[in-house]
Amino acid sequence: MNVLLEPKSVEDRAVRSLLELYDLQSGTRTVLQKFDYLIEAPNWEPSGESMVYNSRGSLFRLNLNTLVSERINAEFCTHCNNDHVLSSDGQYVAVSHHTREDGESCIYTLPITGGTPTLITPIAPSYLHGWSPDGSLLAYCAERNGQYDVYTIPAKGGVEKQLTNTPGLDDGPEFSPCGNYIWFNSVRSGLMQIWRMKVDGSEQRQMTDDGKNDWFAHLSPDGTKVIFISYKKGDVAPGNHPAENPELSIGSRYNDGKCDAAGRLWVGTYADEKKQCALYRFTNEGEPRKMLDGVVNSNGICWSPDGTKMYYIDTPTLTVQEFDFDEKNGEITNGHVIIRFPEGVGTPDGSTIDEEGMLWIAHWGGACVSRWNPQTGEMIGKVNVPTRDITSVAFGGDDLGTLFITTVSAWVPDSVKARYPDSGSLFAIKPGVKGLPSKVFAY
């Protein structure tokens, strides 16, 4: 095997989120801070001196002068999604928290300085989006009897009021600065478009008709401009935007994912504390379909060259499973173990397959990549890598003759980084065998 190891440094490769300012006049983008984990939904506080964002289920306040973040004590509300809104006076924040009892989203309010949350919507699921300028109402999307519509409720709690009632999804309600209107997005026209209605739900009017799928309108403070997210027609189904994690309530995250030959996306999840996760399949059929459950750390998805077998790794089991794969229907059956990792070589992580049908597997904690024969379960090749934690492998290059190897630096102790200074680098090898073209999402 002819192997050339060559580290490919990637600037800021550990950064997963950038908090930026965008100047609407000049188009200039300024990075305020970098995070090596996911943050979402930054909201200005009225003073303009700080922002509130959510990350890993909690809320944080970022001081824009010191760029120091502090967690807001929300007591039991530690599974918040990105739907949080500040009151116009900046004294309170409302959140959508997924309860431990059933995992459903309910809306709570609490002081911006932290404190005991107050339940506002006892009926779930309810997803917060707007707070009226006068502080009297909250607006949200809620599922009731299988239908998602826009509702309002008094900000101190009370009886909710349904404002929309059309087939399909109505979502993303946002109050206008004057307080007279609620902007929202609706799929009722066949595409997701931006709509506007009065606060009582009357005079519902379509505001965009651009042949795209438009989501989540936000108005400028003076009410003269609106900004929203837009997806090209065909990139997503009209009622969908890029998928949310179906296991948000247990604090999981997406991990390894690949597309099969028909363009379906298969992606698994992982959670700390060895909580039970799953492998999902995504198409345009709406919610992701669970294909395997009882998973701890989903990894290493790939298919045989003829497409009749799917290989799958649940890392802590130290095994590779093989499934019969029905390409037409996207079904997997007859799962069984074909490879067992020996002790002392780390744990199996990401994987890929070459044109000869041999599996390449990254070793987390093993400082190597191995090549396996799935027919015999034997390891037939090994490439040592000068970092400890190898995360995944993929073939690329003009002729698919280069194997790229990813490694990690986040979460690695300083003592390990000292021993492996190239931790987090991207490596390239010439293994003497070619890979297969990657498939793309087709829905």
Q: What's the CATH architecture name of the largest domain?
A: 6 Propeller
Taking the sheet with the most strands, its summary is:
4 strands, antiparallel
Q: What sort of overall outline do the alpha carbons produce when their principal axes are compared? A: globular
Helix fraction bin? under 10%
Major sheet: arrangement of strands: 1-36-35-34
| Secondary structure: number of strands | 36
CATH class of the largest domain: Mainly Beta
Radius of gyration: 24 Å
What is the CATH topology descriptor of the largest domain?
Neuraminidase
Uncertain segments:
6-15
What descriptors fit this protein?
443 residues; mainly beta; Neuraminidase; four-stranded antiparallel beta sheet; 1 helix; 1% helix
Write structural notes for this entry.
The chain is mainly β and 443 residues long. Helices cover 1% and strands 48% of the residues. It has one helix spanning 414-419; strands at residues 6-8, 17-22, 29-35, 40-44, 50-55, 58-63, 68-71, 85-86, 92-98, 105-111, 118-119, 126-131, 137-144, 147-154, 161-162, 170-175, 181-186, 193-198, 205-206, 213-219, 226-231, 253-259, 265-270, 277-282, 289-295, 298-303, 309-314, 319-326, 331-340, 347-353, 359-364, 368-373, 378-384, 390-396, 402-407, 426-429. Strands 1-36-35-34 form a four-stranded antiparallel sheet, with no helix packed on it. β22 (253-259) and β23 (265-270) form a beta hairpin. The longest helix has 6 residues, at 414-419. It starts with 5 loop residues before the first strand and ends in a 14-residue tail after the last strand. 33% of the residues are buried. Residues 6-15 have low confidence and may be disordered.
